[in-house]
Amino acid sequence: MPKHTYRSFWLRPEQKEQEIEITPAVEDNLNHDFAQRRIIESHAGGISQPAIIVLDAQNDLHPLRRHYLNNRLEEIAYLERQQNRQDSFATSLYGKQDFTKEKEEIFNELNAGKQSRLPNSKTNNERFWDIADQQTARKKYPELPQKEGEALSRLERENPKQYHEYQQQKIADSKPWEEIDADIQNGTTSPSKLSDKQWASILSQSNKELQEKQQHSNGAPYCNVYARDRLLNDGIYMSPGKSANQIIDGMDKKNSDWGKIPKKNEGVKDTNGHLDHQQAHDLAKDGYTVVATYRNPNNMGHGHISVINPAAGMKNSGKWGKKLPSVDGYNPAKKAIKEGESLSEQFGKDKEPYMNYYVFTGKKHS
Questions:
Q1: Do 15 and 78 share a domain, yes or no?
Q2: What pLDDT is recorded for position 266?
Q3: Which of 78, 112, 146 is the last residue of a domain?
Q4: Are 100 and 213 in a shared domain?
Q5: What is the rounded distance in angstroms from the CA atom of residue 235 to the CA atom of residue 228?
Q6: Which secondary structure element, helix H or strand E, spans residue 260, and what is its range?
Q7: What's the CA gap between 212 and 215, in Å, rounded?
Q8: Which residues does the chain have with pLDDT short of 50?
Q9: How far apart are CA 228 and CA 328, in angstroms?
Q10: Which residues, in sequence order, are CB contacts of 239 under 8 Å at separation 6+?
Q11: Which pLDDT does position 220 carry in this prediction?
């Protein structure tokens, strides 16, 4: 029969810790030092599987603790011998100490095999998994710092569900903007559920496209790219690859987070309605994101979109004959991005019937 109880820790992650019996011959070859482990071949179901065998923590003392207790017994024996040799005068002078209770406690601890660990020391099980996590980190996560790899290995063992969610999020974070948008359109996710890494990736891709347009547009308008980049940086999700007309159509949908500022009549005979410039400016001044848009009735033509700039104030316009908000956007005449100029510089008055102001009413990414 075995001299001690042992526990096996299978190297296969799906197998759990279990008590096993080993022959006395094998046991004699094991090092009973708390810090030592020996890999042997254990046969289970006829299949040879490597396992790490360690002495059961509940049936063994830490070697340093055992060493201390044995030394203390030797010290007590020496003190008792000295007391037996002293004469009556020395006994009356120094007294005679009784070590019976202390010896009994030491013998009980040694015989019962109580586990006594040094402060901050780890159990056999903890040490085993530390080693396993270190090896897993080097093999499975070589691109990560060692400590991060060990933490992931530990998470996979202790909380498989959370580890699966982490891996799914890692895959999602690596997707390009177009794939993220496809997931949003089919309902797999939503803008409010995008991670910071996904937003950072989208912003990086958007900014890169804007820079390329500014450097190589060859005169082609790109108000949509500039406005989209501005809105994304303001925490408002925008789909990639949309023209100005398509962006405006998206804002007009019932489930969008954009609200159209109603037009107003300017006189009794006015039935067409005109843009409420003051309302658009005031909302922007109050912190809302407001855009000015021209939806080209010709789907093959270019629409236009700019962002209201409340800090630049309202400006008198001779072309429109009234005060207009300031805007940031692409100036078609100057073929460049202009910020803080009058709306009249980017939108002709003849476009007003097809123009609208939209205010964002949804939740922004922070």
A1: no
A2: 66
A3: 112
A4: no
A5: 11
A6: strand 258-260
A7: 5
A8: 1-59, 116
A9: 12
A10: 181, 184, 185, 250
A11: 77
Strands (E), 45-138: 47-55
> How many residues are listed for the chain in this entry?
366
Q: Report which of 311, 314, 307 is spatially closest to residue 358, judged by C-alpha positions.
A: 307
The whole-number pLDDT of residue 258 equals 96
**Pair (332, 247) in one structural domain:** yes
> What one-character DSSP code corresponds to residue 357?
E
Output the pLDDT for position 4.
45
Task: Say how far apart CA 74 and CA 80 lie, in whole Å.
Answer: 10
- Which range of residues forms the domain containing residue 319? 193-360
Q: Are 61 and 113 in contact (CB under 8 A)?
A: yes
Strand partners, 339: 328
Residue 125 placed within a domain: no
Which of 43, 59, 75 is where one domain is finished?
A: 59
Q: Within this chain, do residues 348 and 224 fall inside the same structural domain, yes or no?
A: yes
Handedness of CA 152, 158, 161, 162 (dihedral sign): negative
The number of folded domains in the chain is: 3
How does strand 304-308 pair with strand 315-317? unpaired
- The CA distance from 294 to 275, in Å, is 12
In a domain, 292, yes or no: yes
Angstrom distance (rounded) from CA 148 to CA 128: 18
Asked if 31 and 96 sit in the same domain, the reply is: no
CA atoms of 118 and 309, how far apart (whole Å): 67
Q: Which pLDDT belongs to residue 118?
A: 52
Radius of gyration of the CA atoms of the chain, in A: 39
Which amino acid type is present at position 262?
A: P
Three-state SS string over 170-200 comes to HHHHCCCHHHHHHHHHCCCCCHHHCCHHHHH
Do 217 and 346 reside in the same domain of the chain?
yes
Looking at the structure, do residues 55 and 67 belong to the same domain, yes or no?
A: no
Q: Give 10-18 contacts, CB < 8 A, sequence gap 24+.
A: 10/49, 10/51, 11/49, 11/50, 11/51, 11/52, 11/132, 12/49, 13/157, 17/125
Measured between its terminal Cα atoms, the distance across the chain in Å is 66
Q: Tell me, what's the pLDDT at 82? A: 82
Residues 263-300: b if buried by 16+ CB within 10 A, e if exposed: beeeeeeeeeebbbbebbbebbeeeebbbbbbbbeeee
